[in-house]
Amino acid sequence: MTSKASPEDTRHLMKILREAMRDPSLSGERFLLGELFSALAEEDAALALLDDVPGWKMPGLLLSAALLYRGYQNPEHPLHPYLTDSPPPLDDAFRAAVHRVLTEEKSELSALLARHTYQCNPPRRMAISLLMIATTLGDWSSAWHIDVGTASGIGLLLGDVSVIANGQRLGPPNAVLEYPLELRGAPLDISALRCPKIERSIGIDLDPPNLRDSDCRAWMRACQYPLPVELAYFDHAVGSLLKKDFRIERGSAIDLLPALAAEMPSGIPLIVTDTYVCLFMSEEDRERLRRELDAIAQNRPVVWISNNSLVPPGHAPDRTTAGTPITPELTERNRHEMFGAVCVTTWPNGKRTPRLVGITHPGGCWFEWRPDMASIRT
């Protein structure tokens, strides 16, 4: 788990978050979340609230969700007008509203920060996983899927997703969820890609929230990007998930992965996805997870798709969560930009082979294909 951040680190992270949330691919012209992070970075009352929140809870993001949660719940709340379809300008009145809420609702916000964790899991992140499956597993006809740190289980819908990029579609013809994806970086022709059929998905999470509980669902919704299209994606995904008899095992992936793999039919390929999960493990636990996957890969084809921020967290990361080293370019880029490093690990001839293949916006709205980085080895 990460340690408590200093006030300087917290302010720096807020500024990076502001830029990430102002990305036109995600925000269009609605910069509410970006401006909220900018306001929080300047508020001593925000830093005082965050001081008691452990780093692994992602304090700044957690506070933003708590503020949005209270704004959504009460039409009279000072932040509620900014969450409507016709919001007022994000001017000095907005900053004043944020200041008022932080000072007048300190106890209520503190209780939310203590009770909850930040669980965004935007459905569009599945578009990145699907694209990586297609670039790696074109010769697989079918596979099982385990989603590590699945939270509410939205990631279990991976087999129901299609991606639209450059006017082309990727995914099963009967997909009920469809997400646009802006492709950046090197050219990538998705018309030539194929995806295996996902026969079954199982989730693992230490503390999976119950989406059938209305208050829990409201909290999860407050963790999403407060844009009409993103909330519609979330609502549609939740509706689709609740129609399924989905399975989530409570516990640690390190402990549960071997048992779940042992349940699978002999020889059937396995896809393991991890999105903003291994980031919060220690390096020792990440290596334990890799070794568990090493063992599983001795008995069946395995691919691990890891989409996380660089580690160790902070100003000087030197690797990805899959264990690949990073270039000075990415180290420097990490100082002023928030992104996920997307790694694909396979086991040709039983040898663990992780590849850093690209970077992506944390919300999954764009993917930068970087085959030049795939040659970097541990």
Order of helices and strands: HHHHHHHHEEEEEEHHEHEHEHEEE
Mean pLDDT over the residues: 92
Total of domains: 2
As a percent range, the share of helical residues equals 25-40%
Beta percentage is: 15-25%
Query: Order of strands across the widest beta sheet?
Result: 5-12-11-10-9-8-1-6-7
Number of helices: 13
Q: Compute the number of strand runs.
A: 12
The span between the termini is 23 Å
**Main pleated sheet:** 9 strands, mixed
Question: What is the structural class?
Answer: alpha/beta
Morphology:
globular
- Can you tell me the residue ranges where pLDDT is under 50 for at least 5 consecutive residues? none
User: Multimeric state of these chains?
Assistant: single chain
Radius of gyration: 20 Å
Report on this model:
It is a single chain. This protein is of the alpha/beta class and 378 residues long. The protein folds into two domains: 7-115, no CATH class; 125-375. The chain has helices spanning 7-21, 24-27, 32-41, 44-50, 59-73, 92-104, 106-115, 125-136, 214-222, 228-242, 253-263, 283-296, 328-333; strands at 142-148, 161-165, 168-170, 177-180, 182-185, 197-205, 247-250, 270-275, 302-308, 340-346, 353-360, 366-369. The strands form two sheets. It has a nine-stranded mixed beta sheet with strand order 5-12-11-10-9-8-1-6-7, sandwiched between helices. Strands 3-2-4 form a three-stranded mixed beta sheet. Strand 2 and strand 3 form a beta hairpin. The radius of gyration is 20 Å and the shape is globular.
